[in-house]
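Next comes a single protein record:
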Amino acid sequence: MAATRFEIDKFDGETNFNLWQVRLMAILVQSGLKKVVTEKKPENINKTEWEELDEKALSAIQLCLANTVL
């Protein structure tokens, strides 16, 4: 099965941050990663699993940033 792909304009520091943030959050929701940026680590997940989710969320965010922002 092919993975679903979502694309948004990369944030470059000049475009509408609020709109970009809404779209990025939607991508994180669809990827099952929103909890990583909005919640504390749940008690029922081990540290390694949480760190893996954290890395995935970080990379998803970084891929939505322009090189000039990184």
Observations:
- The radius of gyration is 13 Å.
